[in-house]
Amino acid sequence: PGSPCYTNRLVKEKSPYLLQHAHNPVDWYPWGQEAFDKAKKENKLIFLSVGYSTCHWCHVMEEESFKNKEIGEIMNKNFVCIKVDREERPDVDKVYMTFVQATSGGGGWPMSVWLTPDLKPFAGGTYFPPDDRVYRVGFRTLLLRIAEQWNQNKDALLENSQKIMEALQIQARIRGQAQESPPPSEEVMAMCFQQLSKSYDEEYGGFSEFPKFPTPVNLNFLFTYWALHRTTPEGARALQMALHTLKMMAYGGIHDHIGQGFHRYSTDQHWHVPHFEKMLYDQGQLATAYTRAFQISGDEFFADVAGDILLYVSRDLSDQAGGFYSAEDADSYPTATSGEKREGAFCVWTAEEIRALLPDPVEGATEGTTLGDVFMHHYGVKEDGNVSPAKDPHEELKGKNVLMVRYSVELTAARFGLEQGRLGALLRQGRQRLAAARAQRPRPHLDTKMLASWNGLMISGFAQAGAALAKEEYVRQAVRAADFLRRHLFDPSSGRLLRSCYRDKDNTVEQSTVPIQGFLEDYVFVIQALFDLYEASLDQGWLEWALQLQHTQDKLFWDPKGFAYFFSEAGDPSLLLRLKDDQDGAEPSANSVTVMNLLRAACYSGHMEWVEKAGQILAAFSERLLKIPIALPEMARASAAFHHTLKQVVICGDPQGEDTKDLLRCVHSVFCPNKVLMLDDGAGTAFLRRQLPFVSALERKDGKATAYVCSNFTCSLPVTAPRELRRMLVP
C-alpha cells in the first residue's frame, strides 16, 4: 500500500525475480554494460547476487539484508550491485557457480559473489545471515572487510583473482581427443548401475539419505538398463529400484495430494516434508518417468500419477497462449490478513481444520467414525502435527500436518470395516473438500516467466503421456505449446531460439527490449520435445523444425577442437568461461540429451555425421563416464543407444485407418528405449521420403497397414499384426 520508499533500475526488467528486488534500498543493476562501465569508471568492486523468484533462502536474504537500509548503504557506497535471475541467465550463473563450488566445496542459491571491475571472482558463497553468528560471519561484516581489502590490498586481490581464473579455465576444459573412441557402453552401463545400486535406499527408494531429490535421470537410466537386461537379476533389480522409488515418492508429502504435482525435494529420508516450491522442469520429467513406469509395469497407479501431474500443469502453470510458466513459490501468507509469508502455508493442515471440513459420519463404518477420522488415519495426520522439529528449524510448520499416504487402501479399509471401492470414493471426497478450502487461501507467488528449455521438457511430458496412455488431449496440449514456442520463442529470420518471454500485466505475452538468445539447453530440450511430439502426432512439420534447429545448434555451440557443445555461444566478452556441463542433476545436462537427439536426427535424416558427433561427445566425456557414470546417468543411457544402433520402426499406412492405429498403439504401448517411430502415408512429396529414400521402397502388404523394423537403413520382413510387431520390439 502507498508508494514504495525506494526504486532502482530493476523496475524496468521483465523477470519476476528482478522485479521482486526493484524496491530494495540497494541500488541494483541488471547484468549488463551499464553496471560494468560504472565499476570500471569508479574503480569499484562488483557484488553479484544470483537467485530465482521461488527460492526460499533468496527471500530470507532479501528480508534480512537487502531490505535493510543500513546494509543497503554499505553496499551502495562500496560496490556496484548486480542482480541476476539464474533462470534467465544460466550462462552467468554457471560461470560463477563453478567458482563458488571450487572455492567453498558447496553451492546453491542465493549465490553471493564479489568480482573485480573486470568481472573476475575472488570471494563468494551462498546465503549469509545479516550479522555474525557463532560459526558464521555475517553479511554486513563481510561487506566491510572486502571493501577494506580492496582499498588496502588492491594489487594482491587482483593478482589472486587472475590466478583463480586461470585455475578455473584449466578445470573447465573437458576435452576429447580427435582420435579417441567412445568408452565401451557395457562397462559404462554396468558401473552406473552398480553406483546407483550402492547409493539406493532399500526402504524408501531414492538415492541418498536426505535431502532427497526426484532425479528422473536416475530412473530413466534404470528403465533403459532393465530393457537391455530384462532376463538377468541385475535387470530385475534395476526395475524394482525405479518403480519402488516412484511409488514411495507418490505416497510421500513431496507429492501434493490435494493440489497435484510434485514439490522440488524432500528434506527427509521418507519423502515426507518437502521444500514446497514446484518447478516446471520436475513436472515435465516426472510425467515422462511415471508414463514409462506404466508402459513397463501396466500398473494403472503410475498412469494416474502421470495424469495428476499433467492436470496440475494444465490448471496452474499454463498460459492462455499455450506456454508453460516456470514455478510456484514455497512461501505464502497463511491467511489474507497475515503480514508475513511462511513456507508451506498453502499446503499444510491442522487436525482441527480437517475435522471441521470432514465431519460427516461414515455409514457402514465402526460406530461414530467420521470422514475426518478415515482421512486423517490414511494420510498420517496427528493432533499436534506430523512434522518433526528437526525438519522445521524456523517452527513454520509447528502443529501442522503434511499429508502423506501412511497406509495402503487395503489396511485403511480393514481398519474401518469398509469396502476398498467405498474407501477410494471417501478419500476422493475428502481431497476435493480440502482442495476447495485451500482455494480460499492466499496463493503462493507464481513465476510467469516462460523458458524455451523447460517448455521443451514439459512438451515431452505431455507428448509421451499422450502417446503411451492414448490420451489425445495431452497430445493437443503439447501441440499448442510447440506452436507457442514457434510464435514467441523463435526468430524465423535468423532461425534461432530465444531463451524467455513473460506474461504482461494484461495477460498478454511480451518480450524484453533486448531478447535473451537461446542457450544450448534451450535447443537441446526443444529438439527432444519436437522428436517426441512427432512420434505422438506424426505431423512431419515438427520433424522438419527439429532438424533445422539441430543444424543451428551445431553452428552456434559445437567445439570442433575439444568436441561436445559449449553451454553458451562465443562472442560475449562479459562471459569469462565457455563451459560444458558434465553433470546430470535435477535437469539432465544438455550434452547428455543431445547424444540421443543426434542419433534420432540421423535416423530421420540420413545425415550420418550426426552419429559421428554423438560418438565424439561420448569420447569427450569418456573419463567421467568410466569413473563416475552416476554423475552422467542420462549420457550413460545414451551411450547404450549409440552402441546398439537405434531401430527405425516404419509404419506404412493411412493415418486414419484402424489397422494403422492398431500398429501405432502397439508401438506406443511398449517401452523400447532405442527406437524411433515414423509413419509413411504414401505421399510421394512427404518430408521423410525426401530425407530417406529407402522409405519409398517399403510397401503395404496385401493393402494392409504394414510395419518394418529397420536398423542402419536395412529392414526386416514386413508384419501386419500388432502381436508380431510387439515380438520384434521386445525380443
From TrEMBL:
<dbReference type="Pfam" id="PF03190">
    <property type="entry name" value="Thioredox_DsbH"/>
</dbReference>
<dbReference type="InterPro" id="IPR008928">
    <property type="entry name" value="6-hairpin_glycosidase_sf"/>
</dbReference>
<dbReference type="InterPro" id="IPR036249">
    <property type="entry name" value="Thioredoxin-like_sf"/>
</dbReference>
<dbReference type="GO" id="GO:0005975">
    <property type="term" value="P:carbohydrate metabolic process"/>
</dbReference>
<feature type="domain" description="Spermatogenesis-associated protein 20-like TRX">
    <location>
        <begin position="7"/>
        <end position="169"/>
    </location>
</feature>
<protein>
    <submittedName>
        <fullName>SPT20 protein</fullName>
    </submittedName>
</protein>
<dbReference type="InterPro" id="IPR012341">
    <property type="entry name" value="6hp_glycosidase-like_sf"/>
</dbReference>
<dbReference type="InterPro" id="IPR024705">
    <property type="entry name" value="Ssp411"/>
</dbReference>
<dbReference type="InterPro" id="IPR004879">
    <property type="entry name" value="Ssp411-like_TRX"/>
</dbReference>
